[in-house]
Amino acid sequence: MTFLIADSFTAAFSRLSTPDQKAVKASVFDLQIDPAGNGLQMHRIERSKDPNFWSARVNRDVRLILHKTGDSLLVAYVGHHDDAYAWAERRRIEAHPRTGAIQIVEVRERVEDVARPPTLDLVPADAAGERGPAGQGSHAPTPFAALDDDALLSMGVPADWLADVRAATEDGFFALAGHLPAEAAEALLDYAATGVLAAALPPLEYGDPFAHPDALRRIRPIVGEEELEQALAFPWEKWGVFLHPSQRALVERTFAGPARVAGSAGTGKTVVAIHRAVRLARENPDARVLLTSFSDPLAAELARKVLVLAPETGGLVPRITTASFTDIAGQMFQLEHGARPRIAGDALLRQHLRAAAADQGLKGFPERFLLSEWTNVVDAWGLRSFEAYAAVQRMGRKSRLGPNQRARLWPVFEAVRAALAAGRYTTWADVFTGLADALTARDRKPFDHVVIDEAQDLAPAALRFFAALAPAKPDGLFLSGDVGQRIFQHPFSWASLGVDVRGRSHTLKVCYRTSQQIRRAADRLLPTVLRDTDGLEDERRGIISVFDGPAPQVKTLSSAAEEADAVREAVAGWLADGIAPGEIGVFVRTPQLVARARAAIAGLAGESDMVTAPMSLAKGLEFRAVAVMALDEGILPLDERVADAADEAELDDIYETERRLLYVACTRAREHLVLTGVVPASEYLADFTA
Ligand SMILES: Nc1ncnc2c1ncn2[C@@H]1O[C@H](COP(=O)(O)OP(=O)(O)OP(=O)(O)O)[C@@H](O)[C@H]1O
To answer: One Pfam family name from the record (predicted)?
Structure first.
């Protein structure tokens, strides 16, 4: 017999008290061993339209809802007595007549809270065909009115709900979507956004309705005690058990060469990276896996999430190393050289550059140009000889430097390198480059699989290092990232460094984190198609969010004091709505401005639990409510950076990265977002509200 659990069960389970959860766990483990449920007083739920629903007694008050068919037992729900029965009485579990996927369908006639809009009776079905997806006439637009039964069924809409979908208005759609299977809601949103019907999968491909990819996103077979333990250990982390079919495909697939998952903020790229790392470690008991991300806090978060997928500590978890890019390089450097690298900071570099330029009598190049040329070209690309410098393509730097200019500059950079070496200093780029050279020559690599999150911010030397760290075999290197969130790096060609993901790059389209309203507004900050240096296109249209919420607010105020009041009022409102202080983030452009954020929330309940930070640290985080403040002219884009631009191309890149910083900060918000600035405000606010 197949033993399965549904997401409706884990969600309900996570809402129970701890003692009830303990009792439920014991009963579910018993059921897994003895699906007949002896001792659980199972009986059929007579009032349900689905004859396969059964209840099982956990304790005096709590009941499990099971769905029994010939050879499967599905744990569908759990709740207090009346709630559990009511849940089962309002549902059917069946294979969808068209797609073939098992669905948990709400019986339409028993759902009272979806009011049919009055347009329903006024719109004859045959007139619908004349209306485009944009809606019609004097009534509120009904974006699906033109879709016939056939089209709606092919999207996975349950037969009971066809009329409601056709009658749904744009505003009422999300209330309705909550009653529909996720694949139907997503297909409808996609249609509303693009006006195009996605091609339906042929239904016969999946003989077993439980094996259908859309069934697996809500119902998962559980084999063995360990899997059950994992599924129940963190029931609120839905991503740990139930993946979107496009996510699952990327987790399970074998890639012959380096592969990449892309997708805008909140589409679950990190989730895919973690699942892949765990899957690879699980499949090969000897495999050593590196799961790495941009910063130490993000790496720590990866480590925490690995435990969600693999709560058992024996064997698997120790074989997955989680570390930030520089941390793993630091560890490898220590193995090679017996000590951690001593990294030169910007101040020291400026000092050496200044001294070397003076020594060489170099004139006509501002110091900021020298630092930028060193950081983004000479050091970034690990250039060691004049020949290499003379030949390098100065990516992202369009100001041309002729051979004579390069010849004058090179001795300065050479002298800086010598001065660093004399002081036993190095740079991260140098560390990465040195390690890459050493590792490339070795047959045996320290890791069998390297999985990189936040890959858009990899520097060239770091990418070379990771490529050399991973074996050149299937599933050796997997990268996850969003070009739209690249804030620390100049663009460069991955393919030129041997990391060619063309043909093995896939984009996720469903945003799980951010409400439709916030995502739409944030998307307006970026172009609809982003193209990277290797020509890979990241199409950002057609992304959908699976829930809605209040529209984001933009407030421009006449003074910093007024702005502080506005932020304070917004945050106080969130607290009054029951949002925990730890679920609130306030972001600003620079570390110095954090004081402005702290002043705005000073004295509010739970103030110390709220996160206030520069936008660059917002990467990878998420909150129920976010304020992005101090969006004043001169602060975003930041004047100092703009003034520092060494040439036109760098200026363009600065404008783009400043814009992306705002995108990153905004897309940390799940439900509420407020943007504030003092007039004259940041020019980007106009794009956001456009
Ligand atoms: N299959 C899923 N089911 C439920 N929630 C999911 C699923 N996939 C992702 N999520 C949730 O969506 C949110 C965003 O996921 P994740 O951090 O992996 O996205 P991301 O694409 O890496 O985002 P970013 O680019 O902003 O860092 C998280 O809260 C995650 O738990």
So the answer is: AAA_19
Instruction: Name the residue type at position 188.
Output: L
* Structure tokens, 681: 């405000």
**Do you find a cis peptide bond into 118, omega within 30 degrees of 0?**
no
Interface confidence (ipTM) of the complex: 0.99
CA dist., res. 366 & res. 644, Å (int): 10
3-state SS, residue 657: helix
What is the value of pTM for the model shown? Answer: 0.89
Q: What is the SS3 assignment for 366?
A: coil
Question: What is residue 237's DSSP assignment?
Answer: -
Number of the ligand 1 atom closest to the C-alpha atom of 508: 21
pLDDT tens per residue across span 236-280: 899 999 999 999 999 999 999 999 999 999 999 999 999 999 999
Is the distance from the beta carbon of residue 623 to the nearest atom of ligand 1 less than 6 Å?
no
Is residue 126 scored above 70 in pLDDT?
A: no
Phi, psi (degrees; rounded to nearest 5) at 259: -130, 160
User: Can you tell me whether residue 220 is helix, strand or coil?
Assistant: strand
What does pLDDT average to over the chain? 90
Task: Give the residue, by CA position, lying nearest to ligand 1 atom 18.
Answer: 268
Closest CA to 666 of 541, 440, 513: 513
* Binding positions: 263-270
Which residue type occupies 485?
Q
Identity of the amino acid at 635 = I
Ligand 1 binding pocket includes 68 (Cβ within 6 Å)? no
Q: How far apart are CA 64 and CA 85, in angstroms?
A: 9
Q: Locate tokens 């993946």: which residue? A: 243
Residue type, position 630, single letter: A
pLDDT in tens, 8-62: 999 999 999 999 999 999 999 999 999 888 888 999 999 998 999 999 999 999 9
